[in-house]
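hiii so my PI (J.) wants the whole complex modelled not just the main chain, which honestly fair. so below is everything: two entries, each one labled with what it is. i double checked the lines twice but i was tired so who knows lol
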Amino acid sequence: MVAAEVFLTFILVLSIFLGFELINKVPSTLHTPLMSGANAISGITLVGAIGLAGTGNQDISNWLGAGAVALATINVVGGYLVTDRMLAMFKKKG
Amino acid sequence: MDMLIQFAYVISAALFIFGLKQLGSPATARRGNMISSLGMLIAIIAALLDQNIVDFQWIVTGIVIGAIIGGAAARLVQMTAMPEMVALFNGFGGMASLLVGWAALNNDAATFTLVTIILSILIGGVTFTGSMIAYGKLSERIGSGAVLFSGQQIVNSLIVLGILGSSVMFCIEPANHTWLYAVIALSLVFGVMAVIPIGGADMPVVISLLNSYSGLAACAAGFAVNNNILIVAGALVGASGIILTQIMCKAMNRSLSNVLFSGFGSGKVETSAVEGEIRPISVQDAYYILEAASTVVIVPGYGMAVAQAQHVVKELSVLLEKNGAEVSFGIHPVAGRMPGHMNVLLAEADVPYDQLLEMDEINPRMDNVDVAIVIGANDVVNPAARDDESSPIYGMPVINVDQARTVFVLKRSMASGFAGIENPLFYKDNTRMLFGDAKESISGLVKEFA
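here's the output for the full assembly
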């Protein structure tokens, strides 16, 4: 059995290559929405924070996790909404 | 159950990828963003189903507080304030990763986990304070110029050595939290030091880079808590940020290290003296020329954002079209303070995106343009970048407005641009300077047409 670290690193490397391929040809019109949309995705830390904030132990990890949940939610909710607001303004002629 | 959660993560990863792909074209971008948010929702629900969670009180409190703040900010922010908004969100993402890395620390963590904890604290911390400084510079709460002092490189090297040393000590003695606190503190300081020497006009590069860091921090946090979806999503964001950074650097013909370390635009630059005289023009005379023009190109820069002139610019373009002229916009990749800044502002003013042309599209047509109107842009239209080998921006691709028959430059005064470089464009025979506030000047033109 291969160690979990190897699997995680494997996933990391493939995802980075995939990311490069995906985003390579975005027109400059969409650079800002792409950035804020990607920013919303980076709020995925929320998923990690949820596990840490729900242990039920009243210890420092729990508090840190709760703080991370709040900050990451700002990132997720704010990021997606503001991207949608921007994209709603992009219109084609006619 | 755990199996189910992992499969849900696979689905949300696929939705992120598909969503990002659709974000690549204006016609599908909005749907792409929705798909990606659906992926996020699935991932969050899956995380909440985890059976190790016994207490939802803090999770719900955190989510409610975050959703209220994030929702309000997204709704209330002005489009001109978008660069600082993105910087702020980046910073929160970085801080969240720092906290997750810290919280993931327990007494029986393996060395590999300890290393990833350190990485998520380090990248998260740098992203947080770096973004806060970028936010301060963009919102002009602090001076937007480059801050340089003697011995800066030495101080930075010491900080890096300090981070390396404390990190190694932390991995050797994880029970001794002094090293942990040292890494946290030094990362936060390093974020500040990394962004203060970078001036306002280089902000597009910095924001893209911080965007990339916020993704990499999420990635590192994913390693720390052993979670696939964090790694996949973080890596996608990291890659997209790096690509944007590259595009921005290329558009300025500078290397990333030059942008990050040179403190460009902090001092006065020696350039060859410019010959010729300045020819001012009145709004009325500008109107007569515009009325006779059949092709007009508008080249906006950060000055248009500052003057909030995008709506009157749109009005003017409509009037010009009614008058029979063909109007397009020439957008330089680094015009403004973040990638795509001008496109968002003009979209807000209802300018259709197919009227916005990239530099490579507009330059070949410049010979046939009757009037080019430069609004609050300077370095991105400086012909010295093309002709004058001694110029500090020599080699940077620019929009060749000087090749149009007539150029109007809307400008407050004769002060030089951000980079402190003289602009020979202002002294050309076919250039007319329309001095004053951009919004007022254009409103004046609109009134003449009406």
